[in-house]
Amino acid sequence: MKIKNVKEFEEFKRNIAKRKKDIVISVSSGTCGLAKGAEEVFEALKKEIEINGLEKKIEIKATGCHGFCQYEPTVVIKKNDLEVILINVNEKDSKKIIESALRRKKSYTPKEIKEFVSKQKRILLENNKYVDPKNIEDYIAIGGYTSLSKALNMEGKEIVEIVKKSGLRGRGGAGFPTGKKWDMCRNQKSDKKYIICNADEGDPGAYMNRALLEGNPHLIIEGMIIGAYAIGADEGIIYVRSEYPLAVKNLEIAIKQAEEYGFLGENILSSGFNFKLKIFEGAGAFVCGEETALISSIEGFAGEPRLRPPYPAEKGLYGKPTNINNVETWANVPFIIAYGWKWFSSIGTGKSKGTKIFSLVGKVKNTGLVEVPFGTTLREVIYEIGGGIKDGKFKAVQIGGPSGGCIPEKSLDKKLDYEEISESGAIMGSGGLIVMDEKTCVVDVAKYFTNFLRYESCGKCNSCREGLNQMYAILDRITKGKGKLEDLTLLEELGEYIKKASLCGLGKTAPNPVLTTLKYFKNEYLAHIKEKKCPAGVCKELIEYSIEKEKCVGCGKCNEVCSTGAIDLENYKIEKEKCIKCGACYEVCKKGAITIK
Amino acid sequence: MNKKIKGLIREEKNLVKILLEVQKEIGYLPKEIMEYISKEKNIPLSKVYRIATFYKAFSLTPKGKFHIKVCSGTACHVRGSENLLNFLCKYTGSEPGKISKDGKYSIEKVNCLGVCAIGPVAVINGKYYGKLNQLKLKKLLEKIENEDKERERI
Ligand SMILES: Cc1cc2nc3c(=O)[nH]c(=O)nc-3n(C[C@H](O)[C@H](O)[C@H](O)COP(=O)(O)O)c2cc1C
Ligand code: SF4
Ligand code: FES
Question: A303: which chain B residues are within 8 Å (Cβ-Cβ)?
Answer without folding.
Answer: 54-55
